[in-house]
Model the fold of this input.
Amino acid sequence: MTNPLIPAAAESRADIERLRLRTQLFIDGSLRDAAGGERFTSVNPATGKPLAEVAKGGPADVDTAVAAARRAADDGRWSRLDPAERKAILIRWANLIEANGRELGLIETLDAGKPITDTVGLDMPETATCIRWHAEAADKLYGQVAPSPEGTVATITREPLGVVGAVIPWNYPAQMAAWKLGPALATGNTVVIKPASNTSLSLLRIAELATEAGLPDGVLNVVTGPGEVVGEAIGRHPDLDGLAFTGSTEVGRRFLHYSAESNLKRVMLELGGKSPQLVFGDVTDFEQVAENIAIAIFWNMGENCSAGSRLIVHRAVKDRILEALDAELDNWPVGDPLDPATKLGPMISRGQMDKVLGYVDIGKREGARVVCGGERILEETGGWFVPPTVFDHVRNDMTIAREEIFGPVLSVIEFDTEAEAVALANDTPYGLASSLYTRDLNVAHRVARNLQAGVVAVNCYSEGDMTTPFGGYKLSGFGGHDKSIHAHDQYTETKTIWIQLDQAK
Ligand code: NAD
Done:
């Protein structure tokens, strides 16, 4: 079924002619150049050609943004607003994101190379849903009264942290922003956020829409620029109360240092993954399982933190599964992300493509066998395209089974027993997501309990929806969760108010 929201390629090309990209920093309610006047080039990954010159912020811009956010936090223009009013503004914002979904989706496709079917059909609707979901909670969360002794009253309430910093990755630019901004703003914080430098553009437009929705100036500030400069300045800023980071485990570690070496701001980390997909020997619906396996690893070009990059499959069904997967790949055309038929666009950058192809070489050298893909394609477009790649005969100690590739590369590993499957699945430093396929309810429950991962999907690939928390075990992060009401916890402080009552006269 075709989605009527998705424009044809010719329509998108006409839209491009009219598109006005926002390329300045967004501070205190308006767009402005970086203090140093510098800019950097954002490139369209489908063509390799420059797309926009974006303001290159620096530490001075972070200072300005934090000062604006601090003023907005201190005078209570947001935190002390009637929660119903806060909710109404955020819902207006979500509605504007939805109403402008075609423009925002196009920006995301041009900037990140993500297929238009995903950006217009999923990313922008999900971004709006996320903001709306958290907004709805703003006037529905109650504090508690503790069972304190006679003659006392003790209340337990949640208060906003104050000013929150957020640093996000390039794979879901708008959605990752919403996962932070939704709960942080709904709970009354002000925010300074840095998008990844290759994907700044959708967030700048989304921020502008926030002002249109009535968000007071200074509540949301966007500073674009390089991670090692702007990201570090945010991480080390002495006047931020919390820091929400999504990105690689390597950079996540740095944020702990930044916090420890500055003001001990609390740090929430959502990091990388090397997620297993377990297929047990009793499955019979091979086509359905193969379709789910493909979604888990190839969706978003495999540039997905929860990508199911290790297929741990029972020896008895491995060949049937690989046959079904081979047939399923006919449904995964790679190409121009503006074409609604495209399922895989380019890698985000030349560097990322080289990294992925480098892992393919390592896999071959270590003795795994390429079943399909494994080479750059569509080079004539100037874009950085890698097709779905499947490695068979992988051992779990090989580099391609241990390190996060963050591309469309699946490693197939065989097992014989349930215990072996669970041991293989858990033999990774990561613990973000996992899937398992079986017809046996006992196996499903036992294995789901034994997997060390923040999300276990049974007979499907899923990260859950807005109602469920998302976050990892082990090197996949800690300190909080995205999505669901649990996401409100990390953006609030718990306050006890203890009142001694006078004796009755
Ligand atoms: P990255 O860690 O390279 O960059 C993330 C952000 O940190 C970017 O904004 C970047 O500019 C900034 N940054 C880079 N170096 C920095 C430094 N020295 N100091 C401060 N900030 C710095 O990650 P990426 O390549 O943008 O994204 C891919 C990674 O993100 C993968 O590891 C993926 O698994 C992870 N990810 C995790 C989740 C999750 O929810 N767990 C979701 C999406 C992506």
Q: What stands out?
A: The mean pLDDT is 98.
